[in-house]
Amino acid sequence: MKDVLFEIKENVPLAKAVYRMTLSGDASDVTAPGQFVNFRLDGLYLRRPISVCDAEGDSLTVIYKTVGEGTEQMSRMAKGETIRALTGLGNGYDLSKSGRKPLLIGGGVGVPPLYMLAKRLISEGKKVSAVIGFNSADEVFLERELSSLGCEVTVATADGRAGVRGFVTDALPDDYSYFYTCGPEPMLKAVYRRTATSGQFSFEERMGCGFGACMCCSCRTVTGYKRICRDGPVLEKEEILWED
Ligand SMILES: Cc1cc2nc3c(=O)[nH]c(=O)nc-3n(C[C@H](O)[C@H](O)[C@H](O)COP(=O)(O)OP(=O)(O)OC[C@H]3O[C@@H](n4cnc5c(N)ncnc54)[C@H](O)[C@@H]3O)c2cc1C
Ligand code: FES
Fold it and tell me: Does the CB atom of residue 229 touch ligand 2 within 6 A?
């Protein structure tokens, strides 16, 4: 984990209430797709965790949705300003289990970490498909960018105004070797029930400290309690115990 002062290179709207922020600074602690950074924001006691969408050299990109004070503050920041973040947090996805035809399944702001994952899997010669779901056409983002990497992309929207009408689980292909998913918990539960193979789930739970000290993100698994921020956010399908 590193505490890094980044300079904002770009902070632009991508879709309804969704922004892409590209930062310049030391991104060397980001080692796996699915890891996150935790932003320090003015006047807020708790940092705000956001998944790494891409990291290369001294450049780090995040995509975030404005839902409250912290993300609203981020959306008002301009090119040239600085922002502080803890980097290299979380375990990230394990690529070694992907097989030849991995499937990526993302919903809303669960889609960004799948971009870096797709990039890495494609660089390893894997044939990657992605099913990405949103509420409506004006919320769709990263479709073109994932296609440009070489992914076969299917979009699903709940209102049917873009792509397949329905949820990501209405658009899953039959033929895949393994899956990786990230999104809101109801989507993750539906993916758990509908998928035939093994896979990995990233949980974007609410967090406190973000680095394993406060226990407020702890959840029960088949191998005991785990802290989503430190032992996760990625859990394997076989270890998940849903609490409902
Ligand atoms: C590991 C991890 C990765 C994440 N990655 C991303 C990402 O890539 N892009 C992105 O946009 N967001 C991501 N999030 C969610 C993001 O952290 C929250 O949206 C953000 O902290 C909200 O801060 P705020 O001050 O704007 O809103 P707050 O004022 O803190 O909250 C506003 C509203 O949003 C709800 N909310 C806040 N945090 C969450 C959460 N984690 N899950 C569900 N609802 C929440 C609150 O209940 C409240 O209703 C991630 C969260 C985690 C834990
Ligand atoms: S957020 Fe503090 S232990 Fe996970």
Answer: yes
